[in-house]
Amino acid sequence: MSWFGRKPDATPTLDSLQFDASGWKYHGEQQPNPMRVWETPEHDAVSLHFFAVAPDRPACTSVAELTRFYEQSLKGSAAKVVECRLTQVAGCAAVRLIIKAPQKPSGMMYQGALTLPFRDFSFVVKVQCPEVGMTGVREAILFDERRAAGEMPAVGGAGPVFPGWNPDAPEHDARFPNHPISRLRRLLDRIAQSATMDETVRRLPGFRLPEDE
After folding, report:
1. pTM for the complete prediction?
2. d(CA 205, CA 120)
């Protein structure tokens, strides 16, 4: 007997989640863990992953707790969490995560993920946007503007150089559209807004995510 029209043998695959990849170069499907890879015209990488196992994360009760989980997973590395929040993708609760890490010889690599966790499996869309050309321009311009406004940067401390200092904040993206985090947010938005999921798969048992934003 079906439940809300779902067949009992509904099986999730990479085909279950679709999104707008028009204009991107498709690099095919890779194994052993199923994944599909695209390259954008700006040479950023987008990949769709399917994991046929239960999510390896705790059932957090708040976004703050979920953020701490990701921060702990990065402990010991130079990578940092830039953004962690809940969103909706293809009618499913999802986690949107952005991290950044130093890349050689200079600049930052920004990596984003949209994770759609279910009780027994998960889909993850990953995006990688490297900083190319002259690096640190966004930070330098914003720093100079704060100095020009009469603010003095902190010296020798472990905290931010200015109160509320966050050059990665989304309110700066429009001014720096070619910066990797600006490109990354546009790609994550495009994927989330265009994504669709097979209805039989979407109705399978989900994974508990926090209810607060």
Report:
1. 0.90
2. 8
Q: Where are the domains of the chain?
A: 14-133+180-202
Tens of pLDDT along 36-56? 999 999 999 999 999 999 998
Q: In this predicted structure, what is the pLDDT of residue 7?
A: 46
Burial code of 151-183, b = ≥16 C-beta within 10 A, e = fewer? eeeeeeeeeebbeebebbeeebbeebeebbbbb
CA atoms within 13 A on the CB side of 191: 27
Amino acid present at 64:
A
Rounded CA gap, 67 and 74, in Å? 11
The CATH homologous superfamily to which domain 14-133+180-202 belongs is Mog1/PsbP, alpha/beta/alpha sandwich (3.40.1000.10)
In order of 74, 131, 176, the CA distances from 172 in angstroms are: 25, 16, 7
Q: CA 174 to CA 181: how far, in whole Å?
A: 11
> Left, alpha or beta for 190 (phi > 0: left; psi -120 to 50: alpha)?
alpha
Residue 39 neighbours by CB under 8 Å, 6+ apart: 24, 25, 27, 45, 46
